[in-house]
Design brief:
43% strand; mainly beta; 18 strands; Jelly Rolls; eight-stranded antiparallel β-sheet; 9% helix; 266 residues; 2 domains
Length: 266
């Protein structure tokens, strides 16, 4: 049974209620300012349209799967699973989930956190994944694309694969060789060690292991900005290709993704 509530509390009850309202308002503003991963957004994100939800927490219907061992849409080992509203990537095989649609001029936002497992041929090495975008060409491991690197100690690097190219902030153009890749380090990157759990001692952008991180990507006519937890990590221009599909890697490490959304720029 629902009981009526007095709408005009008096005396001590009113004072107590007013303090509760104030506290609730403060917590709401703190969340909107980015205090929680769900609200975090880099300050320079351009004006954009409503969200295109790539992952709704229920299924991977907006994606195809590609594995090096079994090809397209054949995942007998369940490398990619949806668990409690999150994409669980086992990392046990090299491959990816890739959008069925191509995109141009967009803002992409996602959250990730590392699991525990590392697997051959990267067992014991720095946990590695990534978001490859502007994908063109056949579904192979790995396709022609620019990569937003997600790697312990290196998150925010650019990697250009199989003919993809971008011009870094310093004016140097980097092109990935056929069936291989070249990188541009993120801004102010420190020492790197290829060991599981590694963190940059001078300029780490990731949160501690097991916590959620926010990655944001803006791609406007081949001008690309990459943000990690609200900080600009890398910027490049004249990206080739400048549009295409988007994928999330399985590359030898257990990783989780959630809140994967894309917004077309205005």
């Amino acid at each position: 049974m629902v009981h009526a509530v007095e709408l005009q509390p008096k005396g001590c009850d009113f004072m107590r209620l007013r303090e509760i309202w104030r506290a609730a308002g403060f917590l709401l503003l703190a969340g909107m300012a980015g205090g929680a991963p769900g609200w975090a957004q880099a300050k320079d994100i351009p004006v954009h349209g409503p969200a295109v939800v790539l992952f709704d927490g229920k299924d991977l219907s907006q994606f195809d799967t590609v594995l090096k061992s079994t090809g397209v849409n054949s995942d007998p080992g369940r490398v990619f699973q949806v668990e409690k509203g999150v994409v669980h990537v086992s990392g046990k095989e090299f491959g990816y989930i890739v959008t069925k649609q191509e995109y141009k001029n967009y803002y992409l936002r996602a959250e990730f956190k590392w699991g525990e497992g590392t697997f051959a041929p990267r067992e014991g090495q720095a946990r590695d994944s990534g978001i490859l975008f502007n994908i063109q060409g056949p579904a192979k491991v790995w396709p022609r694309s620019v990569e937003f690197q997600i790697n312990e100690g290196c998150t925010g690097d650019f990697w250009m694969t199989d003919g993809a190219a971008i011009t870094g902030k310093n004016g140097t153009r980097v092109t990935g060789p056929p069936d291989s890749a070249k990188k541009i380090d993120r801004f102010n990157k420190g020492e790197v060690k290829n060991v599981a759990g590694y963190r940059d001692p001078t300029n780490e952008l990731e949160r501690p292991h097991g916590e959620w991180n926010v990655v944001e990507l803006v791609n406007r006519d081949g001008h690309v900005w990459q943000y990690v937890n609200g900080k600009l990590a890398n910027e490049g221009t004249d990206a080739f290709p400048s549009s295409g599909k988007i994928l999330f890697q399985s590359e030898g490490a257990e990783v989780f993704y959630r809140n994967i959304k894309l917004f077309l720029l205005k």
